[in-house]
Every structure is written in C-alpha cells, then in structure tokens.
Amino acid sequence: MRKASTLYKILLVSCLAVLNNCSWGTQDSPANLRPYNNANLTYNIQPAGGSYGFLFYSSADWRAMITCENGEEEIPGMPTVNPSSGRGSSSLQSLNFTIPDNNTEFSRTYTLTILSADKTLVVVIRQRSALGMLSITPTEVTIPALGGNAAINVESNANWSALVTDDWFTVSPGSGIGNESVDVVVNAAQNSTVYRTSSFQVISDTITRVVRVSQHAFDVTPPSMTTVSFDGTVLDFSVLSSLPWEVSGDEGTWYSILTTSGVESDDPATNQITLESNPGSTRTAKITVTNSQDEKQSFTITQRGDVSALLNTNWSGTATVSALAITRTGSMTLTIVDEDNVLVRGYPGTISYLSSESISFSAYLSELTYEGFTATNITANFTGTISANQQSISGTLSGSGRVFGLPIVASGSWQVALQ
After folding, report:
1. Structural domain that includes position 399
2. For residue 11, what are the β-bridge partners?
3. pLDDT attached to residue 17
4. Which of 202, 210, 260, 397 sits 20 to 30 Å CA-CA off 419?
C-alpha cells in the first residue's frame, strides 16, 4: 500500500511538471499570423459590390479593419468586415468583408488589415470602375535636358490612345487595349533652345486624362578651336542653361576660367578660358559644365608644346616601303615649314598634328619614281616620334597609289635626322 501511494505521488508530480512546461512553452512562443493561402493577399473584384471570405491562422487574439484609399472621393456605402475581432487559436479562422458598388469612373483600392500581437497581415482589394476607368500615374513628367525618357503608367478597362500635338517628344506605345496596365515611355532629344512645356492627352471612351511634359534646356558650345599652339591664348565658349550651372576643370595652373558658375537663362552665357604659354610638352584639360540636375557636358582643350625650334628645319634619312611583297629602302628628305605645312622629298604635305614630342602629316603626289618603280595618285600618311633632344624623328608610314594602273597599298617605316 505504501508503494502504491509513493507511485501515485511521483505520477502526480510528473503530470504537474509536464503541464507547467507546456504553459511556459506557450507563453514564450511568438504569435503566429499567416494567410491560409498567400495567393489570397490580393483581390481583384468587379464593380458590383459583394461579400468575400478570407481564411487565416492567428495564434493570438486579433482584430481587423478595412479602409479605402479613395483620396477626396466620397464612398456612399463604406466597406465592412465581420467579425472584426477574435480569439487566438491554432485552428483555421475566417472573416468576411463586404465591398460596396463602384459606380464611378475611378478604380478603388481597399486595404484589409489584421493585427495580432506584434504581427500585421495586409490584404489588398482592387475594384474596377463600372463607368470605365482610366488611371494615369504620374500626370506630370520631366525629361532630362540632355535627352532621355520618362515613364508613366496607364491603367484602363477600355481601349485607349494617346494624342500628341507637339513634335519635340514622342509617346510609345501610343495606344493600348483594355484591362491592362501599360508602362508608356515619353522620349525627347537634347533641348538646346529654352525651357519648354507641353502636354498630351490619353483618351479612353469618354474619359480624357492630361499628362504634362516639361524639359529644361542645356547646351554647351565649346571653343571653335580646342587644339591650340603653345602660345598663350584666350578661348571663348558659351553655356545655355535654364537651370543654375557650374563649370570646373582638371587640376592645373596653366589655365583659368573667367566665370565658374551662372544662373538660369534663356540666352547663352559667354565665358572664357585663358591659357598660359606652354614651354614644355603637350598638355590637355577637360572642362565640364554641370547643371543643378547633375547633367554634365564636357570638352577637352589640347595645348601643344613649344615647337618653334622645329619650324623651318630640314631633315634627311631613309624610308623603307613594302608593297606587293616587295620591300625597298631609299632616301627621304623632310622640311617642316611651319605648324601646318611640310615638304616630303620636295612634295608639299599637310601637318595634322605637331608637338615637341610627335608629328603627323600626309602628302599627295601625282607621280613618283622610287627605286625603279613609278607610282601615280599616291597618298602617303606619316606618323613620327621626335627625340627628346629634337635631333631625330622616327616612325611609320602607310599609303596607297597605282602602279602599272593597278591599285596598291603600301606600309613601312622612316627615320630622319636634323641637318
């Protein structure tokens, strides 16, 4: 009998311990709030109102509310939810929400919110319009001054079309079918004139929506010459901007910008860059103009080094030319007349680039006999590197012409020394 009493006490204590543990586990576990089916978190319903059910799980006590994002529109019959609260349970729970008829031209969006402890469950309910719906978002767009796109969304339950009367922007696509949400792109090229505004219409049945389009002006006119000689000079450029702007350049003390900022204007603002004389090698500077919308336009200035020591100089050496699998080496003379002109074996040529480090020039010869071959209609292009002491030049050549009436292409190398 004493053994039975002892076993009974042990069993009783064990049961109490189990019950206590279960109670502690329930208190420590977080609340659970989830839909029966994730696909039911969004409802798309007809204009005619009605009652709809929603299934969910909530382990803690809950309450529900339904609201409408209707802006300034007044809804005659407000939506309801029943029941609006309940006790927590591990079982599947349900509620019903009732939506009134939508007899307006606007779509409506309702939000059903269920709150349980620290959890929130949101259900979005979209209701179409009974009178036809045309929604445009946004109704105002600004296109970048340098050209580009802006997007709007068109949502309609009837076919629609866009009516554009100005020619400085385009709309694509220009039409759509009903019951679709379409992203429409408004595109325009760079605006180099003045700040401009316009609008276009989106029409669906008897409903018309207006979209306003604007674009600021921004255009930089660089100097007429961006590659200049070593002499100090002043270069003019202009800025047209309907927004405030700033101008900056690469680090360097050899140039200065007259005006580093400006205000919005419909007229171009004239500006200047002053370059000091260049006693060294070729140098460049990148000038950038930025408007208040962080759009940028740039140009690069190149100032050649002092080439005065190279002008009116005579050079002699050799040139090796390969054409039609034949290679020949012969004499070559070069005279650098000035910054623009050369003489190659006595034939006139034009300099495309000259600095204290390199030279590029071309020559046209109607006829030339070279190492036993006579060629006609010759165009020759030369590129060379000038030595640091400016005593020699070496480089490559390419050209074309005709020999015995047949077209040929030639290439090779050349080197000359100062006489």
Report:
1. 308-418
2. none
3. 40
4. 397
CB of 416 closer than 8 Å to CB of 392: yes
The reply to whether 408 falls in a domain is: yes
Tokens found for residue 302:
């190149």
Q: Is 21 inside a domain boundary?
A: no
Domain end among 215, 245, 266: 215
Domain tally, the chain:
4
Residue 100's CB is within 10 A of a number of other CB atoms, namely 18
Residues 211 and 250 placed together within one structural domain of the fold: no
**Residue 9 domain-assigned?**
no
Reported as a single tens digit per residue, the pLDDT across 160-189 is 999 999 999 999 999 998 777 789 999 999
Whose structure tokens read 């034949």? 326
The answer to whether the predicted template modeling score (pTM) of the entire model surpasses 0.90 is no
Residues 321 and 378 in one domain: yes
pLDDT tens column, 227-265: 998 889 999 999 999 999 999 999 889 999 999 999 999
Q: Amino acid letter at 311?
A: L
Do 162 and 121 share a structural domain? no
Cα–Cα–Cα angle for 371, 374, 378, nearest 5°? Answer: 105
Boundary of a domain, candidates 102, 127, 152: 127
Q: Which residue has the higher pLDDT, 403 or 191?
A: 191
pLDDT for 19 equals 41
286 with 320, same domain: the answer is no
pLDDT at residue number 49: 84
Can you give the pLDDT at residue 76?
Answer: 66
Contacts of 54 (CB under 8 A, 6+ apart): 35, 40, 94, 95, 96, 97, 112, 123
CATH of the domain at 81: 2.60.40.10
Angstrom CA distances, 282 to 52, 140, 210, stand at: 78, 49, 56
Give the model confidence (pLDDT) of 229-238 as tens digits: 888 999 999 9
Query: In which residue are the tokens 């000359």 written?
Result: 416
**pLDDT (tens digit per residue) in 294-305:** 999 999 999 988
